[in-house]
Amino acid sequence: MEKQLKQFFKFLETNKKASNNTIQSYKRDLVQFQQYISEINKKYNKVTTQEIKEYIEYLTEQGKKPSTISRTIASIRAFYQYEIKIGKISKDPTENIQSPKIEKRIPCILTSEEVELLLDQPKDVDLKGTRDKAMLEFAYATGMRVTEIISLNIEDVNLEQKIVICKNNGKQRAIPLGGMSLSALKEYIEEARTVLVKSEKENALFVNLNGKRLTRQGFWKIIKYYQEQANITKDITPHTLRHSFATHLLQNGADLKSIQMMLGHSDISSTQVYMQFQNNEEINDIYIKSHPRA
Questions:
Q1: Of residues 240 and 290, which shows the higher confidence score?
Q2: What residue segments make up the domains of the chain, in order of their start?
Q3: How do residues 152-181 score in pLDDT, each as one tens digit?
Q4: Contacts for 115-122 with beta carbons within 8 Å, 24 or more apart?
């Protein structure tokens, strides 16, 4: 099965243009599945639907969340459908397998006051503080995903035009930069980044204290540090700032289509989740301002 998995991952990378995060997710799921069927002394092309069901039961007993199990099923199904496509097998053992129901989780949203408290934590007194302030302001100002932020290069930001160009899976979108984010970013680029970066070849926008591109883990640790400094009890992640960005825009009158474009959602239904954070008074105000017969 190892050879088949390598071919499948190459197919995802070359033909499907899947992101590295997506491929790594498939790898985790399928390597675990490979270990399981090896332990029950079964070849991958002889696995039955019943054995897939038993694997799901095994994952449940291991305490895996429904969302994790659902993703695992999707990974296994994608692999077997690929094997059918290239003629290695004739039947997909996951064909009649249904994913467990996943309860929709309400995104963690910070209030405007909590955002202000969090963004006030980095002190602009050293290189780290200057970078961290710019980064937190930038994350809240743009609503970009953490992977998108750490993938940015210095040339993706246009300080004069006050925009950042976000590139993701062959697509790109322009996101405006607000005054506070722009000011913090300009100071970081001119006064901190120039000192932190040791090599002219390093083109990452946000770098660590060694002058290398910041990682997801590095970004996460920075968020957690300032959450503790601000004494905010909510579990804040980089994605929390993205959720808060979208919700606060909507609450202040921005239309869903514009928010969808800034977030980079391909389907507006993904953006509509933020509608639940509007209260009746806000909806009434929007109705009165917008409806011709109100």
A1: 240
A2: 2-85, 112-288
A3: 999 999 999 999 999 877 788 889 888 899
A4: 115/140, 115/241, 115/244, 115/248, 117/230, 117/232, 118/226, 118/227, 118/230, 118/232, 118/236, 120/230, 121/226, 121/229, 121/230, 122/226
* Residue 149, token pair as written in the block: 């932020």
Please, are residues 236 and 230 in contact by the beta-carbon 8 Å criterion?
Answer: no
Give 27-89 as a 3 state SS string: HHHHHHHHHHHHHCCCCHHHCCHHHHHHHHHHHHHCCCCHHHHHHHHHHHHHHHHHHHHCCCC
Query: Per-residue DSSP letters for 155-194?
Result: GGEETTTTEEEEEETTEEEEEE--HHHHHHHHHIIIIIIH
Q: Domain 2-85: give its CATH code.
A: 1.10.150
**Sole residue written with tokens 């290239």:** 86
Model confidence pLDDT, tens digit, residues 236-245 = 888 888 888 8
Homologous superfamily of domain range 112-288: Intergrase catalytic core (1.10.443.10)
What is the pTM assigned to this prediction? 0.62
| Other CB atoms within 10 Å distance of the CB of residue 160 | 5
